[in-house]
């Protein structure tokens, strides 16, 4: 995965406000299902939660609403994103930390939950972030990885481009394949009780607006976007994955590289 564009490289062709809108709508769209599964996996109000790679906080704010008594921490290396996150919701209960996901500087065993959503796909070494998450978890704590996989991500009809048939235009240049690896990555980190779910969303239920089509791609995409949202037959079906594993509460050491 080393040759894939980082998140920052991907953003070079996307206006920041458009990306913020996209992240917010993405979180709004899938939160009902994601929060359902987090609760099923055992997330309870009062537990300490880390959102690793929190971006503009679209998901972090929802975690706070779900668990208002929980100390929630968001970590990201993009200080501009963190400032936006802080401005948007001045919840004192959310602590925002500027750091890389592979070296947060936070204390060992200080979280009951670590959740990383749509971040691993951008990392040259996803296991480095997972090792850091395991260091931060208490024994018995849960690690949740949420990501998509471009081979099983989208039906967009009519297609964006005949040659690809799916995905926003920047996907033409790359192939993000995090979704298929989530279970193996959790196993590699010695997690047990691994659970796995697919999260699907369809514009026929949610409306095309929920998919922020106009935030996809660059200005060259605008005529396609306009035609697409005006087309009464247009539809979007997106899918991503959620995997949860538990850190051993025995004496097994934190896995090394
Ligand atoms: C697609 S956004 C997802 C944001 C958020 N998790 C969400 O679901 O809305 C990816 C985020 O990962 C962050 N990120 C990427 N690589 C990172 C790294 N090495 N350390 C810290 N954050 C990173 C980016 O700054 C960006 O905020």
TrEMBL record:
Fetch the SUPFAM superfamilies from UniProt: S-adenosyl-L-methionine-dependent methyltransferases
Chain ranges of the Methyltransferase type domain: 50-145
Under the heading Pfam families, the entry gives: Methyltransf_11
A molecular function (GO) held by this record is: S-adenosylmethionine-dependent methyltransferase activity
By its UniProt entry, which CDD domains does this protein fall under?
AdoMet_MTases
InterPro entries referenced in this protein's UniProt entry, alphabetically: Methyltransf_11 (IPR013216), SAM-dependent_MTases_sf (IPR029063)
Domain of life, per UniProt, equals Bacteria
GO biological process terms, semicolon-separated: methylation
This chain's protein is named Methyltransferase type 11 domain-containing protein
Kindly list the organism's lineage: Bacteria, Pseudomonadati, Planctomycetota, Planctomycetia, Gemmatales
């Amino acid at each position: 995965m080393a040759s894939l564009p980082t998140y920052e490289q991907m953003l070079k062709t996307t206006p920041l406000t458009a990306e913020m809108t996209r992240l917010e709508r993405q979180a709004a769209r899938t939160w009902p299902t994601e929060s359902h599964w987090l609760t099923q996996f055992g997330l309870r109000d009062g537990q300490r939660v880390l959102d690793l790679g929190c971006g503009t906080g679209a998901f972090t704010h929802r975690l706070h609403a779900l668990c208002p008594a929980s100390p929630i921490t968001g970590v990201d290396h993009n200080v501009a994103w963190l400032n936006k996150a802080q401005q948007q919701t001045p919840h004192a209960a959310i602590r925002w930390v500027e750091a890389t996901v592979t070296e947060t500087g936070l204390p060992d065993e200080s979280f009951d939950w670590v959740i990383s959503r749509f971040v691993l796909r951008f990392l040259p070494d996803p296991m480095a972030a997972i090792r850091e998450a395991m260091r931060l978890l208490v024994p018995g704590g849960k690690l949740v990885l949420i990501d998509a996989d471009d081979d099983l991500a989208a039906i967009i009809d009519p297609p964006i481009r005949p040659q690809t048939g799916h995905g926003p235009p920047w996907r033409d240049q790359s192939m993000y394949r995090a979704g298929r690896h989530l279970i193996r990555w959790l196993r590699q980190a010695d997690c047990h009780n691994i659970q796995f779910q697919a999260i699907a969303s369809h514009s026929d239920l949610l409306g095309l607006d929920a998919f922020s089509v106009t935030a996809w791609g660059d200005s060259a995409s605008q005529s396609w976007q306009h035609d697409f949202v005006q087309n009464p037959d247009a539809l979007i079906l997106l899918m991503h994955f959620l995997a949860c594993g538990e850190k051993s509460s025995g004496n097994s050491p934190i896995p090394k590289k």
